Amino acid sequence: MQKILTRGSYPSMMHALVSYPMRKLFTPWLITLIMVTALPPSYAARSVNSDDLQKALALSGAKKYAAASTIFDQWLDQNPDDTDILFHSGFTLHLQAEAEPNDKRSRKLHRIAYERLTKAHKLGCKEVLLPALLNAYDTEGKPLSREFSSSKEAQALMQKGEKAFGSGKLNDALAFYQRALDQDPRNYHATLFIGDIHFNRGQYDDAITWFEKAASIQPHIETAHRYCGDAYAKTKRPQEALAKYIDAFIAEPYNRIPFEMLKRWAAQNQIYLKRRAINLPVPTVEIKDKEMSIGCDPADGALVLLYSLARGKWLSEERAAFFAEDATPRHSLPEERSGLEAVLTFADEASGAELKEELSKWKSAIDTLREVKKAGLLDTFILLDRANQGIAQDYSAYRETNRAELVRYIREIWFGQK
Prior knowledge:
Serine Threonine Protein Phosphatase 5, Tetratricopeptide repeat; 3 domains; TPR-like_helical_dom_sf; TPR_rpt; repeat
């Protein structure tokens, strides 16, 4: 059972960790993606060490990083390949390094943190935040520099603000961020972090004002929207919170964290949330030298072959109208739409016992496609529930002119709201 930690539980730690470029990943009410989670149930049986490990988590939350690290170190001496503790230890060391004023000591702590996080990754740690932590370092374990502003004055003030916040000096941090805004009035991070300080102080309406301002500066970054949803949730305004979580998801739909917040909101409000992924395979389809190549498994049957052929037909006849001749080939939204529309046409027109038996294997997928097609949301379904790396590249352009459809899809198709 995971331990839910709010910003209130970890005020300065929450803020210090999400420094650019990682800071945008963190939120106070994140359940499965929270920065410091409870230890897995398997630890409960280890009565001698379980209490110590839980104490280490609490110490880390109280910014007593050295004490927490001592416990983690002792555990890792006995269990060097424990991925969970490697992650928690590396995370705590990262926090300690961020707050450490001595540069030499900070570099050493960062190096050890990187080593443990890298080992956790190699051993298969699935923490969603692990990639972001690793991306904060170069390949030698040195922390990457953070650019908050193109203004040298604002950049220096932001760095001072981060140090102050990491040390729990909220008043000083706030002053630095406000001075940074004087130098760079549309600085997203300063605006966001000022709101975060208000949130930490329980000044939720003020936090909302600042988060909304930050969101207006960078509408396609999910953090400010999500933080605003957290503040609305704190003030018992669930519908306003949901609207902001939806905004966060629309800003970055392929980032796992905004969706986790939607799931969390649904669970808290006892509402069923169901994504509409379908089990229809996605074979590779290529056109080279005017020849079509399909990586289709014959065992998948006629419907999958038809879907693949329809995509190939689009590539042969229509791709040139969408892509430059020398553009790198990729799976695209209109290609996928052509394939799925062919599936629906086949399903509607098929006759004969053999064909109907073939369609019965894909009934769930066909029902879903009919549902979203009838709602006028087939493209939205493809982008939100069926996108691969290629299709995802069409999302930004779609969002520019179809934001209402994205909101409607989440509310109507996922949440069942009409």
